[in-house]
Amino acid sequence: MQNLTDWFNTLETLEKIYWTLAIPASIAFLIQMVLAFMGGDSDDMPSSDAEIDADAGIGFQFFTLRNLIAFFTIMSWTGIACIDSGYSNGTTITVSVTAGLVMMSIMATLMYYMYKLRESGTLKLSNAVGKRGETYLRIPANKKGFGKIQLTIQ
């Protein structure tokens, strides 16, 4: 453990910041990925990106927990790579923040298009207007009773 502390103390301030962000963000990213593959990010469970009930707001959400974790993971590792490659601090910050924002944009766009693939499963009665059906239980005349018909709507 002493070697790890000595190693961290020898780092420059910017590199310490990037390493301090990289480790927890990477762990959170891995946990998020494992839960997604195990089904822990399903519709049955509350999600960090879940919409508020009855909120018909914007479908494209840029600032979500999932996107922020992706931003900090990519930004910090890109920053570490830039420092190791010998870039200046200004270039390192610019490149790493840009890489993080690109990752956030990719994640937000991916989630937006995946959300559009959903179906509500709600039957829209307006789709039944003008459709032909099949009677399989006779309908009494003059509204004297009920019958049954079968329609293929959606």
Characterize the structure shown.
The chain is built from four helices and two strands, in the order ααααββ. The protein has about 150 residues and is mainly alpha-helical. The longest helix is centred in the middle third of the chain and has 28 residues.
Give me the secondary-structure topology:
Elements lengths: L1 H8 L3 H26 L26 H20 L4 H28 L16 E5 L10 E4 L3
Antiparallel strand pairs: 1-2
Short description:
The chain has a two-stranded antiparallel sheet with strand order 1-2. The protein has four helices and two strands, in the order H-H-H-H-E-E. It has 154 residues and is mainly alpha-helical.
What average pLDDT do the residues reach?
A: 81
Total strand count, please? 2
Q: Structural class of the helix and strand makeup?
A: mainly alpha
Between the first and last Cα atoms, what is the distance in angstroms? Answer: 63 Å
Radius of gyration: 27 Å
Percent of residues in beta strands? 5-15%
Largest sheet: 2 strands, antiparallel
Individual helix count? 4
Order of helices and strands: HHHHEE
The best one-word shape is rod-shaped
Q: Tell me the helix content.
A: 40-55%
Residue stretches low in confidence (pLDDT < 50, at least 5 long) are 48-56
Provide the spatial order of strands within the biggest beta sheet.
1-2
